[in-house]
């Protein structure tokens, strides 16, 4: 039981076209436990457009697997739900789904995509946070 968290580490970074005006960006902070093929943490989706989708916080869980070949040596899937509120004058809220998929190298850089209420972002860069890149080197 003591080695359940063997090899656990923190992964932080972004999914999306950072620097592109109006592009949704998913920033992730995840605890990765390779020995259990598990990932959990938080994703924050931001967009420079005023509205209900301009700042979303999603608790996520997922899986990580080694590919064993090629440029991208790991694949990651994430799932979560968040409360989506209708903008005024509408009244109400519901649980919306979030999904993400990443093909990354050992430094958490690669390509991926994510989807959330009426938004599908595909084939965008995945970049590790600068301080994470130094830690993994």
Give descriptors for this structure.
single chain, 137 residues, mainly beta, eight-stranded antiparallel barrel, 8 strands, 57% strand, DUF1842, DUF1842 domain-containing protein
Describe it.
It is a single chain. The protein is mainly β and 137 residues long. It has one helix spanning 130-136; strands at residues 9-15, 25-33, 38-46, 55-66, 74-85, 93-104, 110-116, 119-128. Strand 4 (55-66) and strand 5 (74-85) form a beta hairpin. This is DUF1842 domain-containing protein. Residues 7-118 form the DUF1842 domain. InterPro entries: DUF1842 (IPR014992).
Layout of strands and helices, then pairs:
Blueprint: E1 9-15, E2 25-33, E3 38-46, E4 55-66, E5 74-85, E6 93-104, E7 110-116, E8 119-128, H1 130-136
Antiparallel strand pairs: 1-2, 1-8, 2-3, 3-4, 4-5, 5-6, 6-7, 7-8
Order of helices and strands: EEEEEEEEH
* Terminal-residue CA separation: 29 Å
Instruction: Please bin the fraction of helical residues.
Output: under 10%
Strand percentage lies at over 45%
Mean pLDDT, nearest integer? 89
Number of DSSP helical runs: 1
- Principal-axis shape equals globular
Q: Gyration radius, to the nearest Å?
A: 16 Å
Which segments are poorly predicted (pLDDT under 50) over 5 or more consecutive residues? none
Strand order in the sheet with the most strands: 1-2-3-4-5-6-7-8
Classification by helices and strands:
mainly beta
How many domains comprise the coordinates? Answer: 1
